[in-house]
Write a structure and sequence with these properties.
The complex is a heterodimer of chains A (343) and B (382). Chain A is mostly helical and 343 residues long. Chain A contains 15 helices and four strands. The longest helix of chain A has 32 residues. The model of chain A has no long low-confidence stretch (mean pLDDT 82). The longest helix of chain B has 25 residues. The chains are: A mainly alpha (343), B mainly alpha (382).
């Protein structure tokens, strides 16, 4: 029984990591700019498609027809040679194998530019407008983003293979001194969890230990005073929006081997991550992270057969149920500050 | 009805005439066939109802599709269990969705702003997920709820024997299809428009507008606002249920995807596009979206090539390539772009655009132009 519970706990971690990363970005945007960003899921999706694009670029091939050889059905044999391999040799093969982690290099600048363009182009005009209008405009942006992706990459999910070394499962039970094959866990999910830990730690360290982060935190607490001190807080907040979209994008990139990306994956995650943000407390970064993991784990426990036998269908609604209860009983969320959005 | 202010009466009669004459004046637009007209009427009802909540009180619900779906399910169940007549189906659907809205509204309206949006979204997603999984005996899961040959139809059986094949919905024995179905839907559109008009002008409507402009002040004046918002929520939920039932009457099946949050998003788009807070706006928004959905989805590369035929060869090719991304499968991209532009530049929707254009043509100095009626207008200085 302990093993089963521990396994479900682990299973919740990878989904929880994704929720936590998306919710972290959402909270960064809300905490700094005060904007309710319904396009954040679209940023997650854009990140995932950065990985797709990167792999498609890597696997560009030259097709030459070799008339001396025949394919099994009699036509001249087509010889396909990946360009990367032709240029870089073995390193090219490694590059293709590790395309998902390597696509981070492409994702960071792309998402930074996309995020800043979003903020400067549209969202900047909505600071003073009511939350309802912010929801509407970002909702529209999300539709636009996902339709553009759909028209480029098609409507079907595009599976992304994980590096060969990360396939298969790790036997965590042995590490903990248990017998072999009691608790095994896919390696890539473990990597995703560690990756999320690094990103979350990085964001917190950035906010905590750098001058830039200090100014941003001061701006979150009292934007006007920071502005009066002669600091261009708007520019820093714009960069924070870029950072939040990078976090969302990276979360999407690393998630692609777990879930083949399709154009509406952002929307699917968005609804859940909003729930996560609300449960954690609007504007609270630790709350968003904690609630992300908490809900991921809760969801995974709810999908146990034993639990489903008691309450049928609980796995489908558990997250929403928790959100409804939290919102009704404690609207500022688990770790929200008193008085923030407590209406 | 005769006690209505003259302006309202003219608006109502004009609206009724426009709706009833839709098969005629939509002819040049290629939209005058019953299937599309039905959807015009049905989604207009949905949007008018949504506007009673969002337009009047400012509470943005992202879960109204749940009521729409519940209305559809209730109507189909009425067809299966009671009778193929439309009247019990409508009654049943409106009552069930009203009760459903009462329960959800009672809980959701404890919060406002974004929390309200998320609460309604959470409830709608819950209903959607449950309809797909646990409630499969009621909703028939992914297949969707349909009529079948061994349905009971107790009420019908009391009066006559079952005919061969699947029956279609009727109204007192008249089969509801083609233009009969359209005028049936149109009747409800006009009736619900009338009700919405009366609600807007009533003390309840005044109260709702007060809540929108400043709820805190309303509370300080000693008004408990929640019963009013709850009333608006339930009314708009019943509208959604009615629309869902009408959709089930014109095509007797119901699926869970009607409850998905994208469907809730669609009615939000319709209302904003037309103009939230106005009476006619949501109707126009619904018509525009349904019309362009129909027209844009049907455009293919051949039509585009003809359209850009006046351009030289290369430019024509490029123009076809670019514009094909915005039509057919990609029509939702156009909708998204238009929607963003509307929210950014024209938050009042089409109705505000009409008002701005009308203001351009009006004489600059209103006092001199209509001095006779100026005295009846409220003076800003008072």
């Amino acid at each position: 029984m302990f093993e089963a519970i521990f396994l479900q706990f682990l299973n919740g971690l990878d989904k929880g990591s994704a929720y936590a990363l998306i919710a972290l970005g959402l909270t960064l945007v809300f905490g700094t700019l005060g904007v309710v960003n319904f396009a954040h899921g679209a940023l997650f999706m854009l990140g995932a498609f950065c990985a797709v694009l990167f792999r498609q670029l890597l696997t560009l091939e030259t097709v030459t027809i070799d008339p001396t050889q025949l394919s099994p059905w009699g036509a001249p044999l087509e010889v396909r040679a990946p360009l990367v391999q032709a240029w870089f040799g073995d390193f090219g093969a490694v590059l293709v194998n590790y395309s998902v982690p390597f696509s981070i290099i492409l994702t960071i600048p792309v998402m930074l530019v996309v995020g800043i363009a979003f903020e400067r182009g549209i969202i900047k005009h909505f600071y003073k407008r009511p939350h309802a209008e912010q929801i509407l405009v970002t909702f529209g942006l999300a539709i636009v983003a996902q339709e553009i992706i759909k028209s480029i990459f098609g409507a079907n999910p595009i599976p992304q293979p994980m590096p060969e070394a990360a396939r298969g499962a790790a036997d965590i039970g042995i590490w903990l001194g248990m017998q072999a094959n009691v608790i095994t866990y896919p390696i890539w999910r473990l990597i995703y969890f560690l990756f999320a830990g690094v990103i979350i730690g990085g964001v917190f360290a950035f906010l905590q230990f750098t001058t830039f982060g200090m100014v941003v935190r001061a701006g979150m607490a009292d934007r006007e005073t920071v502005g009066l001190l002669g600091i261009n807080i708007d520019r820093r907040f714009t960069i924070m929006f870029g950072l939040a979209s990078v976090v969302a994008g990276l979360a999407g990139v690393m998630y692609t081997p777990l879930l083949p990306p399709n154009y509406h994956m952002g929307m699917d995650f968005l609804v859940l991550s909003f729930v996560v943000v609300v449960v954690g407390g609007m504007g609270s970064l630790p709350g968003a992270v904690a609630a992300g993991f908490l809900l991921g784990i809760l969801q995974s426990f709810a999908s146990m057969t034993q639990v489903k036998a008691i309450v049928p269908g609980i796995d489908q609604v558990i997250i929403y149920l928790v959100a409804v209860i939290i919102l009704l009983v404690r609207p500022r969320g688990l770790m929200g500050r008193r008085g923030v959005m407590e209406a | 009805m005769l006690a209505m202010p003259r302006k309202d009466l003219i608006l109502f009669l004009g609206f009724a005439a426009a709706v009833l004459a839709m098969p005629i004046w939509l002819q040049p637009f290629g939209a005058a066939y019953p299937d599309l007209l039905n959807r015009f009427a049905i989604f207009a009802i949905f949007a008018v109802g949504f506007n009673i909540l969002f337009g009047l009180t400012g509470y943005l619900s992202f879960g109204h599709a749940a009521f729409f779906g519940v209305g559809s399910y209730a109507a189909v169940w009425s067809f299966k269990l009671l009778s193929m007549d439309a009247v019990p189906a409508l009654l049943f659907a409106v009552i069930i969705s009203g009760l459903f809205a009462l329960a959800i509204g009672f809980l959701s309206l404890r919060r406002s702003g974004i929390y309200f949006s998320i609460l309604t979204l959470a409830f709608a997603q819950m209903s959607y997920n449950l309809a797909y999984s646990v409630f499969t005996p009621i909703t028939n899961g992914e297949t969707g709820l349909q009529l079948s040959l061994n349905d009971k139809r107790y009420l019908d059986r009391m009066f006559f024997e079952a005919g061969p094949g699947l029956p279609s919905p009727t109204l007192f024995g008249v089969t509801l299809n083609g233009y009969v179905a359209f005028y049936f839907c149109a009747f409800f559109l006009i009736a619900t428009f009338f009700i919405a008009q009366r609600v807007t002008g009533s003390p309840l409507g005044m109260m709702l507008k007060g809540i929108k402009s400043n709820q805190t002040r309303m509370n300080y004046t000693g008004v408990n606002t929640r019963p009013y918002t709850l009333a608006a929520f339930v009314i708009s939920g019943m509208y959604a249920g009615l629309a869902g039932a009408l959709l089930a009457i014109t095509d007797p099946l119901a699926g869970a995807e009607r409850m998905q949050w994208t469907a809730s998003g669609e009615v939000v788009l319709m209302t904003i596009l037309g103009g939230a807070g106005t009476l006619v706006g949501p109707v126009i928004g619904a018509w525009l979206i349904k019309y362009f959905e129909n027209i844009f989805s049907a455009i293919n590369d051949n039509i585009l090539t003809q359209f850009w035929g006046f351009l030289p060869e290369g430019a024509q090719h490029a123009a076809v390539l670019i514009s094909s991304k915005f039509v057919g499968e990609g029509w939702f991209l156009t909708l998204g772009l238009v929607f963003v532009l509307i929210v950014v530049f024209l938050p009042g929707g089409v109705m505000e655009g009409v008002r701005r254009i009308a203001a351009l043509f009006r004489p600059k100095n209103p006092d001199s132009a209509d001095a006779g009626t100026a005295s009846t207008k409220p003076q800003p200085a008072e």
